[in-house]
Structure formats: C-alpha cells, structure tokens
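User: Can you recover a sequence for this backbone? Please restate the input before giving your answer.

Assistant: Of course. Working from this structure:
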C-alpha cells in the first residue's frame, strides 16, 4: 500500500495565501483533504483571493478567505475567530512575511519596528490566539522562517534578524506548549515565486541571473511552492509526530556549499 498523507477532517489556518509559498501550502494541504482558512492583505474578491479559493476547489477541498493585516492585533483575532467557528483549528501555518532588505547602518527606526512587528511578533501573537484550539485537538504550529536565519548576505538586514529569531520561537513554543502542541520551523531557500522572479527581472539579463542562481544549488533547480507545501502536509500529519522544536532547511543543498562555485 502506498504511503498517503490524510488530513481529512482537519482544519488549517494558513497566512499569506494569495500567491507564492502560502498558495503552494494551501494547495498541498487541500490535496491531503484539509479544510483551509487562508488570509492575505488582498481584499475579498480580488484576483489573489479568488486564486486561493479556486485552488482549493480544484483540489476538491473547502475553505474560506479572510482579508487580514497581520501587523494589527484586532485583525488576528478576527481571523482566528472565523477559522475556529467551523470546527476548531488543528494546524497553523504561520507563513506571511515581507522582505525588509537594507544595510545595518541604513535601516531606520520605522523599518526596524515594521520588520519586527510583521516578521516576528505577528507569528507569536497568532500562535497565542490559536493555542487554545490547537491544545484541544493535539495540533501543530508550522512557522515559516528562511535560509537567511542561518546564512545571509550584506544588505538583508533587518529581515535576517527576524527570521533568525523565529527559530528561537519554534524552540520555545515546542518546549512550553508540548506535548499537546508540536511546533516546527521550515526554512525555505530560493523558491520559484513571483517575488523572486521580480528579483531576476531587476537585472539587465533576467534569464542569465536566474541560471546563475540555479547553478549555485547542488540540485540544479529552484524549489517550488508545492514542494514547501508538501513538507507542511507531512509535518502536519501523524507521520511527523516525533518532529518538534527544530527548523528544517529546505534549500536544495545551497547551505552545504562553503563558497559560490
């Protein structure tokens, strides 16, 4: 018999679902039979919101979309209440974030605070709000950090600091809220998303820069959003019951290299 991940009857909250990694996560959870409540900044009825809902429908799953600004505490409360209304919460995938790329000297106070509020504090606040529901159902929290948590480059401050701090949040939640709740981190590397394509497009020869980036990876490809989503589906399943308190780098072997060659 083939190994199958079955999340039927489970309820998930996934943040940042209008595109990119969040949409890939929602897709793969839905494929495993999970009901998904998704959120993003996009308004209800927008192209991003409809893409999320159409993706669930294509996988034969149900769900709902909530517009949410995760930097605002009252929005988080509305999101969790809407998700829990239809039967509780089994899975939280705290994925949403935003690049704040500057130098340490150039970063201003407002950028510093905005980065910490969205890329660190919102994950903690959302986890706290979901905790009572997750405890009732033996749930799991999956926190999306980044390869910048362990290896970074100049000009990626203060984003890399927040992503590094998230690995500490994963450890603390696993220790303090276990065994009722597992908490696991995922640190994606270079994933093929619209945002990363915009990065390639900023170069004079976008295709050349894309290939140069691909060649830096031992697997000679970029990651896909569905691959990150499949990791989430596995980590949310009973097969991963012994996984908690750690962060898994999913970077195509990029971090194994000592230098760019």
């Amino acid at each position: 018999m083939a190994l199958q991940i079955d999340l039927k009857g489970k309820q998930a909250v996934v943040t940042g679902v209008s595109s990119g990694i969040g949409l890939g996560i929602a897709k793969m959870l839905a494929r495993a039979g999970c009901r998904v409540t998704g959120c993003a900044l996009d308004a209800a009825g927008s192209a991003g919101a409809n893409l999320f809902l159409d993706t669930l429908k294509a996988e034969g799953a149900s769900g709902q979309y909530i517009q949410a600004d995760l930097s605002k505490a009252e929005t988080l409360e509305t999101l969790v209440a809407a998700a829990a209304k239809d039967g509780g919460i089994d899975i939280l995938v705290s994925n949403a974030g935003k690049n704040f790329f500057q130098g340490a000297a150039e970063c201003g106070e407002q950028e510093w605070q905005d980065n910490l509020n969205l890329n660190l504090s919102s994950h903690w606040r959302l986890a706290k709000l979901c905790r009572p529901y997750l405890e009732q159902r033996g749930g799991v929290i999956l926190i999306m950090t980044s390869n910048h948590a362990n290896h970074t480059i100049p000009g990626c401050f203060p984003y890399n600091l927040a992503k590094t701090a998230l690995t500490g949040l994963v450890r603390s939640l696993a220790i303090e809220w276990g065994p009722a709740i597992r908490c696991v981190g995922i640190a994606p590397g270079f994933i093929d998303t619209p945002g990363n394509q915009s990065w390639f497009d900023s170069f004079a020869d976008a295709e050349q820069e894309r290939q140069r980036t691909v060649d830096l990876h031992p697997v000679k490809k970029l990651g896909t959003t569905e691959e990150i989503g499949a990791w989430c589906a596995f980590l949310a399943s009973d097969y991963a019951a012994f996984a908690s308190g750690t962060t898994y780098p999913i970077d195509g072997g990029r971090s194994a290299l000592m230098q760019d060659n």
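That completes the design. The chain has a mean pLDDT of 94.
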